[in-house]
Design goal:
Largest sheet: 6 strands, parallel
Number of helices: 24
Bound molecules: thiamine diphosphate, magnesium ion
Helix content: 25-40%
Strand order of the largest sheet: 5-4-6-7-9-8
Strand content: 15-25%
Distance between the termini: 58 Å
């Protein structure tokens, strides 16, 4: 006889989520840190009631549903996808506020569980408050908008449907290749309806996070390609960190002498001072990485999606005979750029490469070239860290000051603006996950909630947030959540009076920064203080360092505001990024930009 328990749909969901565990490398722990969200009439009586009944499943109220999802994604990223949060919202705008977060999670392949409320399944009282009606169908709500941004999407019309839906939810969330946002749309009436749920559904369940093995034939072909290569380069992506493969990567490249370039998601795969670390790759890459990429005869992509920033819009690899080997858990990525695909976990594959290539080393002159390029690059970083710009400091000096103030395990976090590019080039990552950049979706507003997620994932690490004035104005409000949850972060707010990044881009397109300047005086210190943060404004690098020392000693969130010289940007290093320029225009500057653009585009390549 199967025993059952009579619960509402919402109660059964919480009871189920509480009991989900994951295991990798023999280590087991709970998968969900709890629930984030905001209540409205679409979830308060269902999920809200259930959360009140199960106080051992923590509930964290946030200020915006969007940032709730960002917090969950930041937590998942900092936990190498071994943990996440669920997010609850009401119907209508509460739900649609989560769509940006859902897209961010799916683009970055990060697991988050979204439980938006939905309109009555019963329908007799429709249209309910906040319902979008359709004359063409009654099976229609704004929650359908989650479909293209979710890896799994389902709507629960009857309480028993969760018995088959919830295991699918967990399969996708714990998949090393398919994870992303999972959306279970929960009509507000169904959340409150009771059903006799099988006890088995509610018992502890442990999901094994697989370390996929490569198939022998693919491995042999990849090994042969490396053996035949004289100028190989590894492009390390986020998959290296998610697989916790940094030590295996370091061992493999120390053994073979193969240099390593890092994508945004993969930065910190090697410690910056490892002799094979060439730093950032692509449009925001270092001179060392970009020079090596240009002439490499073999690119070994590990856990990378080859975004346009990584491939410099397909101009980075110019050797006519260049070939690719891709190690990836996702078949989809493994097959990109016409590669020899090795569909496997990064750590497993690297260890097998190391064993199979014990007699391989790169030629001596290539090793000498990489060493020379590395030392030149490190001198460039030192120069930019200590520019001594007259007047306001340059952004690169601010980065240098934060780096010098931070400890070996501390985290730098950012997402949009001129900061990702500058940090990608200049930050010297000391430990895995010490560099936390959301650059799949590059979403302004990720920074503060994402930092709270990183802090929750590992409270022993100080989290520094590098934030623009534009981004601060878009959503500063999770500072309140940081105080409510006692999650201390240090925000360095770079005030350059507008969108310096897009302003620079606009000028490079001949458009003179139109619409990107912000001329109003804004009291950021007063604003941050009003939300409860400790806040100060500093005028020099020395003052910044002393403010950061103070912030480290405090146990609550600090905002340190510094005005910078927007004209002293970090240069590019022999790379470019394809942003299409108007083909016809009245402005001569735009027409000139178009001519340059057409020239640059000639270097874009297909790899088939
Ligand atoms: C949600 C969102 N809207 C728009 C953009 C496009 N965008 C990228 S950077 C940027 C400006 C950011 O300004 P700020 O935070 O001040 O950084 P700065 O460019 O000055 O370094 C904009 C609007 C984006 N990335 N995300
Ligand atoms: Mg700005």
């Amino acid at each position: 006889m199967h025993t059952t328990r009579r619960l509402t749909t919402a109660q059964a969901i919480i009871e189920f989520l509480k009991n989900q565990y994951v295991e990798r490398d023999g280590k087991q722990h709970k998968f969900f840190g709890g629930m984030l969200g905001i209540f409205g009439h679409g979830n308060v009586a269902g999920i809200g009631q259930a959360l009140q009944q199960y106080l051992d499943f923590p509930y964290i109220p946030v200020r915006s549903e969007q940032s709730g999802v960002h917090l969950a994604a930041g937590y998942a990223k900092a936990s190498n996808r071994l943990k996440t949060f669920a997010c609850t919202s009401s119907i209508g705008p509460g739900a649609t506020n989560m769509i940006t977060g859902a897209a961010l999670a799916t683009v970055n392949r990060l697991p988050v569980l979204l439980l938006p409320g939905d309109i009555f399944a019963r329908r007799n009282v429709a249209p309910v408050l906040q319902q979008l009606e359709s004359p063409g169908s009654q099976d229609f709500s704004v929650n359908d908008c989650f479909k293209p941004v979710s890896r799994y999407w389902d709507r629960i019309y009857r309480p028993e449907q969760i018995v088959t839906a919830l295991p699918e939810v967990m399969r996708v969330l714990t998949s090393p290749s398919d994870c992303g946002a999972v959306t279970l749309s929960l009509p507000q009436d169904v959340q409150t309806e009771a059903y006799d749920y099988p006890e088995e559904l509610l018992e502890k369940r442990v999901w094994l996070i697989r370390r996929g093995q490569p198939d022998q034939e693919s491995l042999d072909r990849a090994v042969a390609a490396i053996q035949a290569s004289r100028h190989p380069l590894i492009v390390a992506g986020g998959g290296v960190l998610m697989s916790e493969a940094s030590e295996s990567l370091a061992a493999f490249v120390s053994q073979t002498g193969i240099p390593v370039a890092e994508s945004q998601a993969g930065k910190g795969s090697l410690p910056w001072d490892h002799s094979q670390s060439m730093g950032a790759m692509g449009a925001t890459g270092t001179l060392a990485a970009n020079r090596l990429a240009r002439s490499a005869d073999l690119i070994i992509g590990i856990g990378t999606r080859y975004s346009d920033f990584t491939s410099a819009s397909m101009t980075a690899f110019q050797n006519p005979r260049v070939r690719f080997v891709n190690i990836n858990t996702a078949e989809f990525d493994a097959y990109k750029v016409g590669a020899i695909p090795v569909v496997a976990d990064a750590r497993v594959a690297l260890d097998q490469f190391a064993a199979a290539l014990s007699d391989y080393r790169v030629p001596a002159e290539y090793a000498a070239e990489t060493a020379h390029l590395k030392s030149k690059w490190e001198a460039e970083v030192d120069r930019l860290y200590h520019l001594n710009n007259p007047g306001r400091p340059a952004q690169s000096e601010v980065i240098g000051a934060i780096w010098e103030s931070s400890g070996p395990r501390d985290v730098i976090l950012s997402a949009a603006g001129s900061h990702p590019g500058d940090l990608h080039k200049l930050w010297r990552t000391r430990a895995p996950n010490g560099y936390h950049m959301e650059y799949g979706f590059s979403c302004m507003t990720y920074e503060i909630p994402g930092a709270l997620g990183a802090k929750l994932a590992d409270p022993s690490r100080e989290v520094f947030v590098f934030l623009g004035d534009g981004t601060y104005l878009m959503m500063p409000t999770e500072i309140v959540t940081s105080l409510q949850e006692k999650l201390k972060i240090i925000i360095v707010l770079v005030d350059n009076h507008g969108f310096a990044s897009i302003g620079g881009l606009s000028r490079s397109l001949g458009q003179d920064g139109f619409g990107t300047k912000m001329c109003l005086p804004i009291d950021y210190v007063g604003n941050a203080q009003s939300l409860g943060a400790h806040a100060v404004k500093v005028a020099s690098i020395a003052e910044l360092k002393s403010a950061l020392d103070d912030a480290k000693k405090l146990d609550r969130t600090s905002v340190v505001v510094i005005e910078t010289d927007a004209t002293k940007g970090v240069p590019g290093y022999e790379s470019w990024w394809d942003v299409a320029v108007a083909e016809v225009a009245e402005l001569e500057t735009v027409r000139a930009a178009r001519t340059r653009y057409e020239e640059e585009r000639k270097r874009e390549r297909y790899f088939l």
